């Protein structure tokens, strides 16, 4: 458990009630597309209780109900490949439950109609009629269920729920998984209190407070680009979970020189990263990059390098002369799956890189492009973020580039 929580490579465990709701709504959305018949069957059986209450306990199907031999096999895969294994196994459970409860004379149909489908699914998992091998074979035979698709649905759902919370203050659906988790609002309250304390302490602070207190840790940043006011603005735009980690300066042209090779050596294995650019005309802008730059070396099924990579959590920002955040255009589309086709391929070009250049944002233009010497760049409107050029001229010369990672993220 300690290694899971402290994992730097992958985040396995959701730590707020909001993210817990995001996970089960993600399961519900991908089930509607990749286990359509099973999802419809579950919806019909759920009756007045509604399918939401059933999906809210999806992690308990796996971690609490599955027989031990099944759980061991599932966790082996989970430790190796991450949370996507749980999503696949949850869909496999739905598919197998559908198969065994379609017949109205079956014991599982009778169980669902008598005691409720939530109890029936739980009991089905405890008495899993399929072998561990059959369960995993069902899970991994679901076609076209890519990690990128799961990530996209997750991010859309998270953005939608966050916006609903801000607008309506809506309450989250309770599940066994969420009872003892801190709310996102409690994290925000901790951060704002820490923010206030940091300002009051000023330069006479006796030392950094423990990270577990939710410290707003930007006081440790000695940036050549941003002052404290601009840093506070930028930190307010970051995902909440990221603001809890200590920022670490990975690369700066002031100290490490102007070389894309050096940039990759120092930055490519960190995820996420924050790029900040100051031009020779004193414009300040940059990007929050959700995916490690090493992904530029990943190859597709045909053995070709990926042209673009990244997720919809990536965003652009400008701090001078204008202050603005430019999120992915897909964030404005609902997480109910109905708008899936409205996001064109040209609007999903987040990050690209090779030995000659770095690009952030694409489609009808490049939001940020830098050359191999990290000296010259250009900025245009792009489809991915629907941003204006980040500096008036469109072309810029880099005075300082700083890249930050997040310790423990």
UniProtKB/TrEMBL annotation:
Its localization reads: Cytoplasmic vesicle membrane; Endomembrane system; Synapse
The alphabetical list of record keywords is: Cytoplasmic vesicle, Membrane, Synapse
**InterPro entries linked to this entry:** Rab-GAP-TBC_dom, Rab-GAP_TBC_sf, TLDc_dom
Report the leader peptide range: none
Would the keyword Iron-sulfur be found if you checked this record's keyword annotation? no
* Membrane topology note: Peripheral membrane protein
Q: Identify the GO cellular component terms for this protein.
A: cytoplasmic vesicle membrane; endomembrane system; synapse
Query: Residues in domain TLDc?
Result: 224-407
Protein name, per record: TLDc domain-containing protein
**Is Membrane included in the keywords of this UniProt record?**
yes
Q: Taxonomically, which superkingdom? A: Eukaryota
């Amino acid at each position: 458990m300690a290694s899971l929580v402290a994992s730097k490579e992958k985040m396995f465990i959701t730590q707020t009630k909001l993210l817990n709701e995001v996970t089960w709504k993600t399961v519900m959305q991908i089930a509607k597309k990749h286990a359509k018949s099973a999802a419809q069957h579950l919806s019909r059986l759920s009756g007045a209780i509604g399918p939401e209450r059933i999906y809210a306990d999806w992690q308990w199907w796996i971690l609490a109900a599955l027989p031990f031999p099944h759980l061991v096999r599932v966790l082996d895969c989970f430790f190796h490949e991450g949370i996507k294994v749980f999503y696949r196994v949850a869909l496999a459970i739905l598919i197998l439950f559908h198969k065994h409860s379609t017949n109205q004379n079956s014991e599982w149909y009778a169980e669902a109609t008598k005691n409720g489908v939530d109890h029936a699914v739980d009991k089905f998992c405890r008495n899993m009629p399929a072998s561990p091998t059959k369960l995993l074979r069902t899970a991994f035979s679901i076609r076209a269920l890519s990690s990128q698709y799961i990530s996209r649905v997750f991010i859309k759902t998270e953005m939608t729920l966050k916006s609903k919370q801000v607008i309506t203050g809506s309450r989250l659906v309770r599940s066994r998984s969420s009872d003892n988790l801190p709310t996102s609002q409690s994290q925000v309250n901790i951060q704002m209190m820490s923010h206030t304390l940091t300002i009051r302490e000023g330069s006479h602070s006796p030392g950094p407070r423990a990270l577990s207190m939710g410290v707003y840790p930007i006081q440790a940043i000695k940036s050549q680009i941003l002052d404290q006011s601009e840093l506070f603005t930028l930190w307010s735009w970051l995902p909440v979970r990221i603001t809890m980690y200590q920022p670490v300066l990975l690369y700066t042209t002031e100290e490490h020189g102007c070389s894309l090779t050096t940039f990759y050596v120092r930055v490519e294995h960190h995820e996420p990263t924050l790029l900040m650019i100051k031009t020779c005309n004193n414009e300040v802008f940059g990007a929050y990059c959700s995916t490690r730059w090493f992904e530029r070396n990943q190859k597709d099924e045909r053995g070709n390098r990926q042209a673009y990579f990244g997720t919809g959590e990536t965003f652009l920002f400008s701090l001078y002369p204008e202050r603005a955040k430019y999120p992915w255009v897909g964030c404005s589309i609902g997480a109910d799956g109905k708008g899936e086709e409205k996001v064109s391929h040209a609007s999903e070009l987040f990050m690209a890189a090779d030995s000659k250049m770095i690009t952030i944002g694409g489609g009808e233009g490049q939001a940020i492009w830098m050359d191999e010497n990290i000296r010259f760049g250009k900025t245009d409107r792009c489809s991915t973020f629907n941003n204006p050029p980040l500096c008036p001229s469109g072309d810029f010369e880099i005075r300082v580039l700083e890249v930050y990672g997040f310790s423990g993220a």
